[in-house]
Write a structure and sequence with these properties.
Layout lengths: L1 E8 L3 E4 L1 H8 L5 E7 L4 E7 L3 H14 L20 H10 L3 E7 L2 E2 L5 E7 L5 E9 L1
C-alpha cells in the first residue's frame, strides 16, 4: 500500500508531516512504514517536535556546516549555476537520510513521545516536495 504526500516549503527548515503519516497508517495493523523523498536537495528526519528551537538550531547548524556556494569557504565548488544554495543543498541531502523506516503497531507509528517526522528543506526558495509512503 502506497501514498504520496506533497509538502510545500518556504525555504530552509524542517516541515513536520507526522499527522499525515499517522493518518496513512491508521487502521493498517502491524508492519513497517518506509518514507522516501523524491528529490536530491532535501532530506527526511525524525526529530523533536516539542520545542521549535530544536528545528531552528538544526537549520542554523547545517547552514554553518555547509554554507552557500558564494561563501569563500565553498570556493572549490564547480556546480554553481543553479544558485548559491543548490550544491550546498545536495551536500546536506547526501549527509542526511532520504528514506526512513518506522515500525507500526496497531496502525500507529511507534515514534517516541517527542518525535515527529519532517521534511528537511535545504533550498532557499519555496518548493513542492513529494514523499512516497509505503506500508508493508
Amino acid at each position: 500500500m502506497q501514498q504520496r504526500f506533497t509538502i510545500a516549503t518556504e525555504g530552509p527548515g524542517l516541515y513536520e508531516f507526522t499527522d499525515r503519516v499517522c493518518d496513512f497508517t491508521a487502521g493498517k495493523g502491524d508492519g513497517l512504514l518506509t518514507l522516501f523523498v523524491r528529490h536530491t536537495s532535501c532530506s527526511l528526519a525524525i526529530q523533536e517536535n516539542a520545542d521549535p528551537e530544536v528545528r531552528r538550531d538544526l537549520t542554523a547548524f547545517f547552514h554553518r556546516l555547509v554554507p552557500p556556494s558564494d561563501d569563500p569557504a565553498m570556493s572549490y565548488l564547480t556546480h554553481t549555476y543553479e544558485g548559491p544554495d543548490d550544491m550546498p543543498a545536495h551536500i546536506k541531502a547526501a549527509l542526511l537520510p532520504v528514506s526512513l523506516s518506522i515500525p507500526v503497531a496497531a496502525g500507529r507509528p511507534l515514534l517516541g513521545t517527542w518525535q515527529g517526522v519532517y521534511l528537511f528543506e535545504h533550498r532557499a526558495r519555496a518548493h513542492r516536495r513529494e514523499v512516497v509512503a509505503h506500508f508493508a
